[in-house]
Amino acid sequence: METNRREFLRLFGTVGVGIVSFQSLTCLKRPLKKNVLFINVDDLRPQMGCYTNSLSLHGQALIKTPHMDSLANDGVLFERAYCSVPVCAASRLSLLTGSRPYKEPGKPWGRQWAYYSRLDNEAQSEPAAINHPGKSITMPRHFKNNRYKTLSIGKVYHDIRDDDAAWDDKLKLPQQTWRGIPAYEIGEGEKDDTYYVDGRTTDYVLKKMDELKNEKFFYCVGYARPHLPFSCPKKYWDLYPEEKIELPPNYTPAKNAPPSSMHNFGELRNYSEVEYMDESKEYVSDEYAKKLIRGYYACTSYVDAQIGRLIDKLKNTRDDQGVALYDKTTIILIGDHGWNLAEHNLWCKHANYNTSIQSPLIIRDPEIGGGKRCSALVEYVDLYPTFCDLIGLGRPVPSTDNDGSLFDLHGTSLVPLMKKPKQEWKQAVFSRYHFGDTIRTDRYTYTEYVDKEDMIVGQMLYDHVKDPHENYNIADLNPKLVAALSVLLGKGPVGKRNAWRSLVDESHQNTPITTALNLPQPIYPENNYPGNGQGR
Q: How far apart are CA 493 and CA 110, in angstroms?
């Protein structure tokens, strides 16, 4: 708020009027008009170097990511962030609309349901209108309505045709197909950074920054790697010697896991020349598994290099007032969901395990101090209100949802956590995939699987204190704990749709209710339980 004359005189006295002009003081108080650079990395799991001091759930080695690490050091790293849905299209729809996913009662579909979910048009078996909450305003449209230049490149929405009118500039560069080709390529010779799409994407954005230096912009940059195929220049593969690559210690299904929790990694099977252990094709060969792990690491380092180029450009581009873009740009970096690297013999995403639903999140804001780590439970649905508060846009006007209820943003602004990361926060967060709904508390993940008629057909309960790799499902040993978590998760599709509401104060912009859950104490099996907290 600008200082009025009365406040000015109170602070400085009448003598100071001749020394400090009122006009100069109000200029100092003028809010910074910040830009937004939203970097969405496809299939990125939180195994970057900046997660060194976090609970190690994701692999045997940290990936070399110096530029993402530097961004985290200059901003706030969220150690326990969760996507709404562990699949590309649905995750992106959820965060860009600010709405949570759900299953329609008695239907084999729901809001933000699958990889083919669309915002605007019918998508195969589901009505696409269900993926858009009524006539609500999407995140990019909200920025455009507030006179921001809105730009999109690469994979932002899964389908580039969605929300077309929200963008002033929209581009998706051609790239290699993701079906029917080998799942990895070690690029040699002329196959340098710009041979692959992410390098060319970065080139385009760097040129655009020169045009945007005096604009207010909202720029969404979607990187393709480390999504399959793992194709990138050889120099990034060389960062990870073959002999150093290890398989995960839990390369087997979790004990007592319900069949509904597993899948046969169909996304990987779409590629050619996949090498299997035997004719059953239940497992890929160990040698091939290590090639995939190495390729994932290499592609993550490749994307990290592109992010480094973006940040360098922001630091070295100044507007006409001499201000570096980095000093007036809020940068948000996420992976759209987690990714499995053979844990429980799962590859890709598409599961309710922690490796699929936990995702990286870094926010760097020029007006909030950096070098912070936050261990609170947060969700990607929190991003829309966070963007609004960081930039000072105000929230979009509430609308009527498809079920007739009032729709307001479902998330909670993370700005208070960015300022004070150690404060009490949400007691639980939620994710779902197809017929499985998951609640994650500070200690547990609990999942219920249902059939099309909404009858429960499977349950999973993991204790992240004693079993952080989720190797032993203890649901059948803990009926009281399961019952308590089931109540929090919600009963039936409608109850699960609205379960999050009991954990926040909706009248105060979804402020977290920090009352402890007081769950029953867990019971563990007598033998063969990973009680030391390590994977088997």
A: 10
Q: Are 362 and 383 in contact (CB under 8 A)?
A: no
* Cut 0.85: pTM above it: yes
* Counted domains in the chain: 1
Structure tokens at 113: 């349901």
Which CATH number belongs to the domain containing residue 124 in this structure? 3.40.720.10
Asked if the structure places residue 348 within a domain, the reply is yes
Q: Which domain holds residue 235?
A: 31-434
Residue 457: inside a domain, yes or no?
A: no
Task: Give catalytic residues, as residue numbers.
Answer: 88, 158
What are all long-range contacts of 312-315, with beta carbons under 8 Å and residues at least 24 apart?
313/205, 313/206, 313/209, 314/37, 314/209
- Map residue 24 onto helix, strand or coil: helix
Residue 88 lies in a domain: yes
Enclosing H/E stretch for 405: none
Tens digit of pLDDT for each residue in 80-136? 999 999 999 999 999 999 999 999 999 999 999 988 899 998 888 888 889 999 989
Look at the block and give the residue holding tokens 């990973």: 530
- All residues at 6 or more sequence positions from 50 whose CB lies less than 8 Å from its CB, including other chains: 65, 68, 69, 72, 73, 77, 362
Q: Please identify which residue in the block is written with the tokens 């290890």.
A: 246
Domain-embedded: residue 301: yes
